[in-house]
Design goal:
Order of helices and strands: HHHHHHHHH
Structural class: mainly alpha
Radius of gyration: 19 Å
């Protein structure tokens, strides 16, 4: 049975087993990547392998921003700055929510997760507006390069993910009932990890564009290494039970 908040009620008889299952990450022991009862949400950013993820995502963001600011600044400069900021926020949103497991933690985490992702979506929309305005102003071709095509796909996936996530949690009635909305939570989580990986692939493809090769000079190997480090920190914290495994 679900409460009005959409958080399922747990029967006392199976509470212990449910808790252990939900706290078991893909790698490690149960509880290794779980928020403790007396801990604030802020600790979720560094619990378990989150520190590794933080190192990777901040290196990636710093690499992009440094390359932009040591190059001649122009309107287009906002595109990589905004995109990297959006992915940084999305990574933080994932890290924040992963360790939650009690109803109270999930409710608080989901709200802040939503705020972070909404801010991320707004920065990504701004990045898309910048690149489209730049293309129109210079009569450039739209969605031709691998980076542009991957970018468009990733933008669309981000927007769909946000819409479904908001509807699932805040307006579950659109799915017929709270239980039906909850039944697809695991797909929302799975797709979130896929979109994060797609984001890194898109950034890697950006290193092969003429603008990067001629102006920014961001190295492909640097993007790949930072992305892999981030995923090494994020993926082991995935809770098996939350994905229905």
């Amino acid at each position: 049975m679900a409460s009005a908040t959409g958080i399922p009620e747990t029967r006392s008889g199976d509470a212990a087993n449910h808790g252990r299952g939900e706290q078991e990450p893909l790698l490690g022991r149960a509880g290794d990547a779980s928020q403790q009862e007396d801990q604030g949400l802020q600790f979720n950013f560094v619990i378990g392998t989150a520190v590794i993820a933080q190192v990777g995502i901040w290196i990636l963001t710093a690499t992009i921003w440094a390359s932009v600011f040591v190059s001649p600044l122009m309107l287009f400069s906002a595109h990589p700055l905004l995109n990297s900021a959006g992915i940084l926020l999305t990574t933080q949103a994932i890290l924040l929510l992963q360790p939650t497991h009690t109803p109270k933690q999930k409710k608080q985490g989901a709200n802040i997760h939503g705020i972070l992702n909404l801010t991320s979506i707004l920065t990504l929309i701004a990045a898309l507006v910048v690149i489209e305005y730049n293309k129109i102003a210079h009569s450039g071709a739209h969605f031709v390069s691998p980076h542009a095509i991957l970018g468009l796909i990733t933008y669309i996936l981000f927007f769909l993910q946000a819409i479904v996530g908001i509807a699932q949690y805040y307006t579950p009635g659109v799915f017929g009932s709270t239980e039906k909305a909850k039944s697809i939570y695991k797909y929302h989580r799975m797709s979130g990890y896929v979109i994060l990986i797609m984001s890194f692939v898109t950034i890697a493809a950006a290193t092969q564009t003429g603008f990067n090769k001629n102006i920014l000079h961001i190295q492909l190997w640097a993007v790949v290494v930072a992305s892999v480090i981030t995923l090494i920190g994020v993926l082991p914290r995935i809770k098996k039970q939350k994905l229905g495994l």
